Amino acid sequence: MTHDEFVKKYNDIVERALTFAKKARREGLLALDEEADQDRIDERDIFEYGIRFVVDGTHAEIVEKILSNIIKQEKDENMLILKTIQKEAALSIQAGDNPRMMYHLLNSYTDITLKEDEIKKLIEDLNERPIVL
Fold this sequence. Notes:
mainly alpha
């Protein structure tokens, strides 16, 4: 996998995760049930599979264990990083973390600087700003 392919996959994962995080914080975890992609779940895509467990109310330690077991089977180093990012995203959503903090956690698994990270622009749009009256 080239660096450009890695960055594209990273962007896709993080954008989807941030969108899910925002929805979960506003509407609750059950709202993610309609967003989950069943085909990806059936393929054990780490993020989608994890979100299924999160929506079902599975304890975080069990979700972490299941996803980690699947990730351990990965041989490609770039895919290992991407799958770890997916796992952390699902667990972060389950914990109710702020999307901005989740973004920084996910970015920390890469060598993509904040200046270079295209997702940084998206986080500003997703940032929950208080309404000033």
